[in-house]
Specification:
This protein is of the alpha/beta class. The chain folds into three domains: 90 residues, Winged helix-like DNA-binding domain superfamily/Winged helix DNA-binding domain (Arc Repressor Mutant, subunit A, Orthogonal Bundle), CATH 1.10.10.10; 100 residues, Periplasmic binding protein-like II (D-Maltodextrin-Binding Protein, domain 2), CATH 3.40.190.10; 105 residues, D-Maltodextrin-Binding Protein, domain 2 (3-Layer(aba) Sandwich). The protein is 42% helix and 22% strand. The strands form four sheets. Strands 5, 6, 7, 8, 11, 12 and 13 form a seven-stranded mixed beta sheet that branches. Strands 1-2 form a two-stranded antiparallel ribbon. The longest helix has 24 residues.
């Protein structure tokens, strides 16, 4: 993009500079920001240097292992986000025909591979000119991306710690007990939570909200699960259970696609543990007709595919 010049010949920062600056501010590291932007680190450094020359003062304070925003940098961060948001929303509004364009969908890892494929496929059939972009990440990262307009909506498990996002519940889903076939409880059709207490658990690591759901359910019933191992993916939790490393609780949607005979799934008697799935979006961003169509399609998909 060619830089714009004002009437007295001073160069005005371009949009790429603002995007580069915001990514460095987010990452607090030039190397990681350059990797995200798919440019070289020297090119990124030169862009930030030119930006600081134009402003006449530094926007970052360089430290040994990281960088932090200066006071000028914090002001620029706020204004740059506003500028890019206005421009992106304006472009989206001008080109909005309700059929083409892009919808950026986020989902947490314990939902994305189980719920999204059929949803996205059915929407693509109905809107063949649309482009769907999927981001799989943890709840905190998706909320940040949704707030900043980097994605249009996110499908998460409640609770959602965000004040300025619209939240709509989609459905409740049971969490099933998963056991190795040779486990003492595997022969029981009805299992109480007290039956589970003596056995160690395999859980997802602390970045995933599913572990919070499980621990919270147990604590409400005066039971603290003992975690012997942590994994970063739900599939690994299932594999570790198969190898008798422990037991766990798995969302019903993950059970539906598990064809392995190396694991046994059971419901817990009484009031079984559940999680609530919701969709969130930023109501202060421009909402294209295509985005609204996707949200309506999501609601219809939920109604026609109730959790089993």
């Amino acid at each position: 993009m060619r830089p714009v010049h004002d009437k007295i010949g001073c160069r005005i920062m371009d949009l790429d500079q603002l995007r580069y600056f915001l990514r460095v501010a987010e990452r607090q590291n030039f190397t990681r920001a350059a990797e995200d932007l798919a440019i070289s680190q020297p090119a990124l450094s030169r862009s930030i240097q030119r930006l600081e020359e134009e402003l006449g003062q530094p926007v970052f304070e360089r430290k040994t292992r990281s960088i932090v925003l200066t006071e000028a940098g914090m002001l620029l961060q706020s204004r740059a986000q506003q500028v890019l948001t206005i421009l992106e929303d304006t472009k989206a509004e001008i080109t909005d025909d309700g059929q083409s364009g892009r919808v950026r969908v986020g989902a947490i890892p314990t939902i994305a591979p189980y719920f999204l494929p059929e949803l996205l496929q059915s929407f693509s059939r109905a809107y063949p000119k649309a482009t769907l972009i999927v981001q799989e990440n943890t709840t905190d990262s998706l909320i940040k991306s949704c707030t900043q307009g980097e994605i249009d909506l996110a499908i998460l498990a409640l609770p959602v710690p965000a004040r300025y996002l619209e939240v709509e519940e989609l459905f409740k889903e049971e969490l099933l007990l998963v056991l190795p076939p040779n486990h003492p409880l595997a022969a029981q059709e009805k299992i109480r939570l007290t039956d589970v207490e003596p056995f160690p658990f395999v859980l997802l690591d602390e970045a995933h909200c599913l572990s919070d759901n499980i621990i919270s359910f147990c604590r409400q019933r005066s039971f603290q699960p003992v975690s012997v191992e942590r994994a970063s993916q739900l599939a690994m939790v299932q594999e570790l259970v198969s190898l008798s490393h422990g037991i766990s609780m798995i969302p019903a949607m993950a059970r539906q696609i598990d064809q392995s005979n190396r694991r046994v799934y059971r419901s817990i008697c009484g009031r079984p543990p559940t999680r609530t799935i919701a969709v969130v979006w930023n109501p202060y961003r421009f909402q294209s007709r295509l985005f609204q169509a996707f949200r309506d399609h999501l609601r219809r998909f939920r109604s026609s595919h109730p959790p089993r």
